[in-house]
Amino acid sequence: MLSIQFVRSSQSRIIARWFTRNSITRSNQVPKSSGDIKNDEVLGTKMHRVTNFDRRLLVWVKRYPSFAEVPDEVSVDCLLNSRSKARIKSTNYLMVAAVIGCIGAVILGKRAADKGENLHMMRDQWLQERLEKDKNK
User: Fold this and answer.
1) 24 vs 80: CA distance, rounded Å
2) What Pfam families does UniProt report for this protein, alphabetically (predicted)?
3) According to DSSP H, which parts of the chain are helical?
4) pTM of the model
5) Could you give phi then psi for residue 72, rounded to 5 degrees?
């Protein structure tokens, strides 16, 4: 019983990890086959081939001035930092949109309250319409 719970909890951690990890990992391990190792892979920062989405992201966080000036390969640290900045930037925009939506809902609610519209009145009106339809049948 205890071992089954342990296995299930470890499986859920692995699945949760899939959704939270980036496609880039910060592993600095040297490959095991030492016969064909190139010096540029062992020394220096790891490079990552940039996709179109990554290019747009790097330009959006102002890491590069234009889409055409983004190189084909960028360091992993540069890409991870730009993803973090983009995540924070988009979260800030979503918070502003949520605040604007809340203010809009309050304004619309106050206008409806001034007109005398509320859920209780709408329900009573609907009920009266249904009763009239049932009497006419």
Assistant:
1) 8
2) DUF1075
3) 2-20, 39-42, 52-60, 76-115, 119-136
4) 0.58
5) -70, -30
Radius of gyration (C-alpha) of the chain in whole angstroms? 29
Q: CA-to-CA distance for 13 and 1, rounded, in angstroms?
A: 19
The partner residues of 75 in beta bridges, in order of sequence, read 47
Q: Per-residue pLDDT tens for 46-105?
A: 888 999 999 999 999 999 999 999 999 999 999 999 999 999 999 999 999 999 999 999
The Cα–Cα gap between 63 and 56 comes to: 10
Count the Cβ atoms, other than its own, within 10 Å of residue 81.
13
Amino acid at 60: W
pLDDT at 117 over 60: yes
Domain ranges of the chain: 47-132
Q: Letter for the amino acid at 65?
A: P
